[in-house]
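Weekend entry, working from home. Most of the wet-lab plans are on hold until the incubator is repaired, so I used the time to fold the two sequences that have been sitting in the queue since the last round of cloning. Logging both here for the record. First:
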Amino acid sequence: MAQAVETKQRIAAAAPQVGIEIVDIKTTGDKVVDRRLAEIGGKGLFTKELDDALLDGRIDFGVHSMKDMETWLPDGIEIAAVLPREDPRDALVSYVANSIDSLPKGAVIGTASLRRQAQLLARRPDLSVVMFRGNVQTRLEKLARGEAAATFLATAGLNRLGVEIDAVTPLETDTMLPAVAQGAIAITVRAGDDRTRGIVALLNDAETAARTATERGFLAALDGSCRTPIAGLAELSGDGSKIMFRGLVVRPDGSGLMTVADEGPVEDAEEIGLRAGRVVRPKMDRGYFE
């Protein structure tokens, strides 16, 4: 909802003649919080209801956390714009430690993300991971009740919600590489709806679009989903002419971690990600997750 409000405000500034109504749609991913996404259908559970509403005309565009979007969009739906990216880093949330290395030996950590779990266990195999899902406030309440020594949240989400607590420590990306497109907001429209596309396109941030195209290219090359611990981050050079990409794949138990890096001109954004994925993919095909 915070992202929808931000989008409404940006449209009001860019095209004040356009009236915007926010339609609140609860997704299956919002409603089912006692199981991992991988167990109930994957990332599409955060987008399906919005996609249905878009396709049947109840809404004109959808606002999504881009990291929750499926690798391939349903027929008839297109990404029309990507808003300027927030901080892509993960944040450690803990009242007993301010880094992964300072967590107590054998501590219980709560997360529903296989990517976070896998990178955590690769660094600290002594830790125990339990499933944490729910919105930001729900997870913070679980932590305050002592159900775990720590959890992880997206720094972008905390910033957008204005959450300020001393227990939050952003993690540098060489400690925990973020999810593909983490911190980015994507706006989807119906294919062929040129009027809405034209309005939404006013909000598009070229740098974020290039970075996320690279990262989603990596995901596409790996046929990635929330069932696979995949991380990726693309960054632009100082003059904005080049993209530097880092990717990571690791088993859920933290073993077999593989990293890849590539770079190239910004106009080749998606191909850079695809190329990096093609380096890693053959190794996964040889029973990497068996």
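Second, folded right after the first finished:
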Amino acid sequence: MVRAIPKLRVRAVNPAALNPDGTHVLHWMIAHRRTRHNFALQHALFHAERLQKPLVVLEPLRVGYRWASDRMHRFVLEGMAVNARRFAKAGVTYLPYVEDRPGAGSGLLAALAQDACLVTTDDYPCFFLPRMIASAGRQLPVRLEAVDANGVIPLQATDHAFPTAHSFRRWFQRNAAEQLSPGGRPLVNPLARWTARRPSAALKRTLRELRERWPMAAKLDDEASLD
């Protein structure tokens, strides 16, 4: 059974309600692109298990952003290959989407979220991701929760920045026990605790239609190429 994560790590992006009658829980993987030691994935699995719904993971790769490069994208593609194997083994529907031109993936997230119970994503405070998450929250018809899986200490654990390493060490020494307790640490492999659930006929039909409009990466392996 997948356990709940600390509440400090979860942030509601929009005021929309959770839809218990949806066909699936959707995890939008945009920063913490890993299946292990991942609070965001653990949170998605927890809700899917609680609601008794299948989990769908969308891992998109945009191409139209500043600093996009073959080197960066090769790194992401190799990670997708690992994720594809691990999600397949765990019975999780995994959608690795790689844009073939800037903006080609526009509308994919909203389409996947249309019949979802809940959408979870990574709460990453840098790059263009905060703006993208906020924009998605305004558009999605269902609750969007951003999850902090950035480090040992939750971003919301303090209400100020530490001006010196010394001041941070003093704070950490007073609060480390709580943050490093078993409940404060992510599961090593949350997929190992997950009980897979088969997609309904309605979800299968939706996924088939979406794959026709937004073809997923056809080949992902350790020799994945950008050619």
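Plan for Monday: verify the second prediction. Strands lie at 10-12, 24-28, 55-61, 93-98, 116-122, 144-147.
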